[in-house]
């Protein structure tokens, strides 16, 4: 039995959160909105509670969880030390869409870290997430609130579809602002390293830190390396349909997609086209969904997962997706798209 609560993030009724906070304290599971994506939370200090998260999602046990906190005092006993670089990042980006990897303390249960000697911590800025964590009074472990392998949920309905009947409570609180997961950055070595691109861009991190590395394993053409963030090795974000990304000069990309669409349609396939506001007029007679405007990468980040889920509802067999320019939020967008496509990218032109 899953209790479902509708809560307006602009006008939070605290009584609505009392049940959820009690549930968390008592070892239950609660899905709730954050500014990135919805999370599925449990008391991070309670191993049995955390186990329920893995079961509900069907998540592999070698994939560690992010611990969410609402106040800095909670950081101190979860980590071994707080490096200077972490302090700079926290001052600038917390609360917000940044997860920081620290050396763990022994207070953190092994199930959270999946056996690593580090722990991932994030302080979310979403008013519902903040209030709920505060009211629960304990740090909250929370992966994205989707079934493992599916696109992350950015709206209450996505969570209800994936997890109703599998968790104790779902707080439906509107659509997530950022729409992509947090950036994961490791500060345990001298030069910080991005392990997962996300809501905070590399450019923003460089402003604060100077030099920032990116885990080579998550860069294009290095799929054979083992990522430092265990979750990055899984194919992810996959809709039912096959996804193919077409990359290159945008005019050529449009022409190529039109050609591929004809070919597939002639074979009886139902085709989806994932495009942008600037290009959507070029297509017709298919399930055509725009991710947003190329001039506003935040709009594309915001819509991406919802659009992938909509293609499933439309029952398409194959999705042709335009690539997005890899700068600023475009890195995180393309990272998720390439995984949704299972690395199936057609490059055209030079
Ligand atoms: O925006 C987000 O980060 C959302 C919201 C709910 O906060 N959460 C989220 O959690 O995306 P999840 O579990 O779907 O992704 C967590 C990622 C995984 O790739 C995992 O492997 C990585 O963080 N991670 C967790 N702990 C780690 C650690 N100690 N070292 C390296 N990577 C870690
Ligand atoms: Mg996830």
Automatic annotation (TrEMBL):
Q: Does the keyword Transferase apply?
A: yes
**Which residues are in the YrdC-like domain?**
14-200
Compartments where found: Cytoplasm
Q: What class of enzyme is it?
A: transferase
Query: Does this UniProt record's set of keywords contain Nucleotidyltransferase?
Result: yes
Residues binding ATP are 59, 63, 118, 142, 144, 152, 196, 237
The catalytic activity of this protein is classed by the Enzyme Commission as 2.7.7.87
Short name of one Pfam family for this protein? Sua5_yciO_yrdC
UniProt: L-threonine binding residues: 36, 68, 122, 182
Keywords of the record: ATP-binding, Cytoplasm, Nucleotide-binding, Nucleotidyltransferase, Transferase, tRNA processing
Cross-referenced InterPro entries: DHBP_synth_RibB-like_a/b_dom, Sua5-like_dom, Sua5/YwlC_C, Sua5_C, T(6)A37_SUA5, TC-AMP_synthase_SUA5
GO MF terms on file? ATP binding; double-stranded RNA binding; L-threonylcarbamoyladenylate synthase; tRNA binding
* CC terms in the record's Gene Ontology section: cytoplasm
Catalyzes what?
L-threonine + hydrogencarbonate + ATP = L-threonylcarbamoyladenylate + diphosphate + H2O
User: What does the entry give for GO biological process?
Assistant: regulation of translational fidelity; tRNA processing
Say what the protein does: Required for the formation of a threonylcarbamoyl group on adenosine at position 37 (t(6)A37) in tRNAs that read codons beginning with adenine.
Q: Which family does it belong to?
A: Belongs to the SUA5 family.
* Name of the protein this chain belongs to: Threonylcarbamoyl-AMP synthase
Which species is the source of this protein?
Crassaminicella thermophila
